[in-house]
Each structure stands twice: as structure tokens, then as C-alpha cells.
Design brief:
It is built from 6 helices and no strands. With about 120 residues, it is mainly alpha-helical. The chain has a domain at about 1-5 and about 20-70. α2 crosses α4.
Length: about 120
């Protein structure tokens, strides 16, 4: 991954301010986001950069790796063709009656009225 990012960086050398994070840190930042799926805010605090820098770095690393073709997820057909391991989960969803007093029960109302006297 680092080699792919390094070739992209060498090909698109820009003038101006150097990036806040070196290439290895940019890759590690993107890997942390993908692995832990933390918010940009928390990553920005950890790496001591702006949230927008985190967003741009992740997007740049992701686009570079996808365009290289070396790091892509398998297609739908390949995933659909593979048989998943079977897992059986049994859930007891039977209904059981709950004993509750009737809503308009006369004795309950009389008791309440007599208790207020």
C-alpha cells in the first residue's frame, strides 16, 4: 500500500505547503478509520490535525488504492458464488399470556372509591 501511495506522490508532486502528516502516517490514519470506523473528529484529536485534513487524507488514500487496482474488493458475482458457512440460530418466539386485571373491573373501582372516603 505504501509503495502505491509513494508512486502517486512522486507523480503528483505539488508546490506549496507540505502535508501535515507524512505518507506513512496518512496510510495509518486511513487504516485506523477503516478498521475502527471512528469519527473524523476523534481521529483529528488523536493525530492533532483538523477534521477536514482527516477527511481529505482518507479520501485521497482510498481513491489512490482503488485506482491502482491492486487493492479492490471482490465483485458481487464472486461473493455471491461463495457459499457462506451455515450458522443456525434458534429463537423461541412463542407467546405466553400475561395475567393482568381487566380494565373496567367493577371491584377495583369500588375499592378505589371506598379508599377515598
Amino acid at each position: 500500500m505504501l509503495a502505491v501511495l509513494a508512486t502517486r506522490e512522486a507523480a503528483k508532486r505539488k508546490k506549496g505547503r507540505p502535508p501535515d502528516l507524512i505518507l506513512e502516517q496518512q496510510l495509518l490514519l486511513a487504516l485506523q478509520f477503516w478498521r475502527e470506523y471512528r469519527t473524523h473528529y476523534h481521529l483529528a484529536i488523536e493525530w492533532q490535525v483538523a477534521e477536514n485534513t482527516v477527511r481529505r487524507t482518507i479520501q485521497r488514500v482510498e481513491n489512490t488504492l482503488v485506482k491502482s487496482g491492486a487493492f479492490a474488493l471482490p465483485g458481487r458475482r464472486k461473493i455471491a458464488g461463495a457459499e457462506p458457512p451455515w450458522q443456525v440460530i434458534a429463537v423461541d418466539v412463542t407467546e405466553s399470556p400475561i395475567e393482568r386485571p381487566k380494565k373496567n373491573s367493577v371491584p377495583a373501582i369500588r375499592v378505589r372509591r371506598s379508599a377515598t372516603h
